[in-house]
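Second attempt. The first submission of Acyl-CoA Delta-9 desaturase-like had a stray character pasted in from the spreadsheet, which I only caught after the job came back as garbage. Lesson logged: always re-copy from the clean sequence file. Corrected sequence (247 aa) follows.
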Amino acid sequence: FAFKFRYFLFSFLCWQNTIPNWVRDHRVHHKFTETDADPHNAKRGFFFAHVGWLMQRKHPEVLRQGAKVNISDVLADPVVQWHQRYFWPLKLIFALLVPLLIPVYCWNETWIISLSATLCRTVGLLNVTWLVNSAAHIYGSRPYDTQINASENFFVSFLSIGEGWHNFHHTFPWDYKASEHTLFMNATTKWLDFFAKMGWAYDMRSTKPEMIRTVALHQGDGSHAMNAYANEISYDEFQRKIKESDR
Ligand SMILES: [Zn+2]
Ligand SMILES: [Zn+2]
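This time the job returned cleanly.
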């Protein structure tokens, strides 16, 4: 509960929509990635996937599939219900008022500087969040699946502390790490591991290395062999294995 509550607070700090809204869009995005039913379909270009989708009415397919997707688990959660009921007052308090008041009252910052900092932080954070839908669906390598546009993007991972390893995330969406790397540019995983140790986060699923390797071998772009286990097999050997498996 405490863990959920923190995330609930963070959702305001990052100026996000309501939790059920987010969950519904996210589930539809994974189920219908890069089709008309994808809320931020990257096939419609960088700008649309980044922020354009929030500036216009949703595509009829998004609405149709969104209405079908099951989010009853989320709606049944008491924290979520409370969050929905008081969404706007809570958002104004945690996203605007508290960040505005702390610098002014704690270290005598001027109002205008405090307001500018709050606005800059919000604009910056939103753009980083959106890069996961835009840049990480267009630019980068595809070590696990070349059939999808979601890609491994170092730049986005750096900015979003671990959310840019998007080819992995779309190939193995159940994996809580959202990446194969647990240390490299993925502080989010360490954060979740920390709460798992405390017992606040549980039932976390991940993917067996053998499964990742097999999938990468069959449908990846070959970069997996060069990066993740370069020490174990050479690139030539990797190519040979692919040819063998094709036979
Ligand atoms: Zn996702
Ligand atoms: Zn995605």
